[in-house]
Amino acid sequence: MVESGTQDFYLFIDESGDHGLRNIDPGFPVFVLCGTLFSTEDYSDARNSMNSIKEEFWGDKEVIFHSVDIRKWRDAFQILINPKIRESFLNKLSKLMIGSKYTVFASGVRKEEFIGKYGKLHTDIYEVCLSFIIERLVFFIDDIPVARKRVTIIIEERGRKEDAKLKSNFNRLIQVGTRYVSPERLRYIGLSLHFRKKKQNINGLQFADLVAYPIARHILNPKSANPAYDIVKNHLYMKNGKEYGLKISP
């Protein structure tokens, strides 16, 4: 039974690796685009929980959780050099990522295999990944028994040219749809795209950043121990018993 009313969501999108195909980092030949979807109520809870961790360890909410800085104990995260602080922080961060209510949609590209199959001049892989995320988002939203849904997509600014290109790609996607989702279906959901600066300290974008890297590591070395991915995979969009929220190309 479909309930009356409207439900609002946030989809925060971040990436791991770069989407260029010309110069590939041999140590990290992968690109991952990752979206974390929250209802507005669940996002409020997750944001407050993340802020509580920030206040406990730094005394305020101003620090920005960035996966690479945490891993390298860099900048504000130099406090993690202390093993007791590091253990306490990582335990609480893990509990946050386990206990928060969000759904993950991600698309990853193995660059060398991708070039071998399609060549370096193929369509922008960022656009390919974004199309998949939007498509699976629609499938997920369709199953929610509410008459009307609205999704605000938030992406961190990357630069004027890059953001303009992404905005153009997004608008084209809304106009023509994807292979499996019609433009009418996309417009019915009420998708809107917004860019935010890193210094605005958007906790949802930090969630997406923390989720994206473990997925990239999983794609690179699926058999290696990856405790962070073990947490993330429990939040992947599942449908008919399958991981519908993750696509790896090729």
Question: What features would you describe in this structure?
Answer:
This protein has helices at about 40-60, 65-70, 85-100, 110-120, 125-140, 160-175, 185-190, 205-220, 225-230, and strands at about 5-15, 30-40, 105-110, 145-155, 190-195, 240, 240-245, 245-250. It is an alpha/beta fold and about 250 residues long. The chain has a single domain (about 5-250), classed as Nucleotidyltransferase, domain 5, CATH 3.30.420.10. It has a six-stranded mixed beta sheet with strand order 5-4-1-2-3-8, sandwiched between helices. It has a two-stranded antiparallel sheet with strand order 6-7. Strand 6 and strand 7 form a beta hairpin. Helix 1 (about 40-60) runs antiparallel to helix 3. It is globular and about 55 Å long. The mean pLDDT is about 95. This is DUF3800 domain-containing protein.
Can you give me a brief rundown of this structure?
This is DUF3800 domain-containing protein. The protein has helices spanning 40-58, 67-71, 83-99, 111-118, 125-142, 160-176, 183-189, 203-220, 227-232, and strands at residues 3-16, 30-39, 103-110, 146-156, 191-196, 238-239, 242-243, 246-249.
Keywords:
250 residues; alpha/beta; Nucleotidyltransferase, domain 5; six-stranded mixed beta sheet; two-stranded antiparallel sheet; globular; DUF3800 domain-containing protein; DUF3800
Write the layout of secondary structure elements.
Elements: E1 3-16, E2 30-39, H1 40-58, H2 67-71, H3 83-99, E3 103-110, H4 111-118, H5 125-142, E4 146-156, H6 160-176, H7 183-189, E5 191-196, H8 203-220, H9 227-232, E6 238-239, E7 242-243, E8 246-249
Parallel strand pairs: 1-4, 3-8, 4-5
Antiparallel strand pairs: 1-2, 2-3, 6-7
